[in-house]
Amino acid sequence: MQIESVPPHRHLPPLLKLALEMGPLVLFFLGNAYAERFGIAADQKLFVATGAFVAATVTALAIHYALVRRLPVMPLVSGVVVVVFGGLTLYLQDKTFIMVKPTIVNTLFGVVLLGGLAFGKPLLAVVLDSMFALTDEGWRKLTFRWGLFFLALAALNEVVWRTQTEDFWVNFKVFGIMPITVAFALAQTPLLTRYERKDVRA
């Protein structure tokens, strides 16, 4: 009997993946920054930005799925929260919902990762297994660090949106969260090197 091999997952080109991830954020920033030039009142521009953000997020997810026939877990969860909280923002005309969205998403990721560890399941290994080959201890340590990082990012978002102006929060969301995340990811390089599986590397 002939056993058919399972086709490998297709992956997006790195630049296209980056464009699909950053595109909605860029439109969110532009909508907030330039809405007044098109006659939108200052207190309404965040609603315009939110509408653009929701539409761009749905479009980006649709393009991603059309190209590779699957969606990564974290962008999918984030996209669902964007649609739900962005929709509530527009429907109820309450900016609070879109401003707490990063808090909700990062808290969810942090709780899930740390909760998985409590049950002996380093869930980050499920998400990133195709990218890194780590020992079990390495996955546990990496998952623990990212869990704490997501909770810290959630707390930081709460501080920013509750104490700063709308424009400051938008700039923080677009130009703050991503660099902080990239810097944290790069800081994990020593851990990735230390706990790399020797059998795979060989």
Strand content: under 5%
Distance between the termini: 33 Å
Q: Roughly what percent helix?
A: over 70%
Structural class: mainly alpha
The value of Rg in angstroms is 19 Å
Tally of DSSP β-strands: 0
Mean pLDDT: 90
Query: What is the string of helix and strand elements?
Result: HHHHHHHHHH
Q: What count of helical segments does DSSP give?
A: 10
Q: Please state the overall shape, judged from the principal axes of the Cα atoms.
A: globular
Regions with little confidence, pLDDT below 50 for 5+ residues:
1-7
State the major sheet: none
- How many domains? 2
Overview of this structure, please?
75% of the residues lie in helices and 0% in strands. It has helices at 14-34, 45-68, 73-92, 96-118, 124-128, 136-163, 166-175, 177-187, 189-194, 198-201. Helix 2 runs antiparallel to helix 3 (73-92) and helix 4 (96-118) runs antiparallel to helix 6 (136-163). The radius of gyration is 19 Å and the shape is globular.
Q: Summarize this, please?
A:
The protein is mainly alpha-helical.
Attribute tags:
mainly alpha; 202 residues; 2 domains
